[in-house]
Write a structure and sequence with these properties.
Blueprint lengths: L3 H12 L3 E2 L1 E7 L2 E7 L2 E6 L2 E8 L4 H8 L1 E6 L5 H8 L14 E4 L2 E4 L4 E13 L2 E13 L7 E2 L8
Antiparallel strand pairs: 1-11, 2-3, 2-6, 4-5, 5-10, 6-9, 7-8, 9-10
Length: 160
């Protein structure tokens, strides 16, 4: 266990790792949902792959585990409505995408007003403490419009 001074320094150092803002979606057997995801990183060139960390207990993990797919929708700098909407956990029995321009694809839900999307097939996963890291091979994707992706730096690397 870290002492308080070391934990404070580690927290501040972790907070300096930049992260993007994405809406991660999944769909299976007529159910779909989305969550805000910020721990996303490109992981490989061939096949093109990404990693995404999802907190234990999130309902979306059920859909990803059943379907074997997810969609990453890249948010722009002015995505405050989507941040608020998907920042809290969405239950599987509530309509997560009501009022948004979307289309459902085999991998999940594409949000048409996002900057871009990547459809991913799960090719691996690993436990990482209070999160699970999924590795997804990109099987489809596209850019929807021009814009700057939302990038954040946190003051505290020990929580969202």
């Amino acid at each position: 266990m870290m002492d308080t001074a070391v934990k404070d320094q580690v927290s501040r150092a972790l907070g300096q790792i930049p992260s993007g803002c994405f809406v991660l979606t999944a769909a299976d057997a007529g159910q779909s949902t989305g969550i805000l995801a910020s721990w996303v990183q490109q992981a490989a060139f061939d096949p093109p792959s990404v990693t995404v960390a999802i907190k234990q207990g999130r309902a979306i993990r059920t859909l990803i585990d059943r379907s074997g797919y997810f969609v990453l929708n890249t948010l722009d700098e002015n995505c405050n409505g989507l941040l608020k909407r998907f920042g809290s956990s969405c239950d599987l029995d509530k309509p997560a995408f009501e009022g948004l321009r979307t289309r459902t694809v085999p991998a999940g839900v594409v949000i048409e007003d996002s900057l871009a999307h990547l459809c991913c097939k799960v090719i691996g996963q690993a436990d990482a403490g209070d999160h699970t890291v999924y590795v997804g091979a990109v099987v489809d994707g596209g850019v929807h419009r021009a814009g700057r992706p939302n990038v954040r730096i946190r003051n505290n690397g020990m929580n969202y």
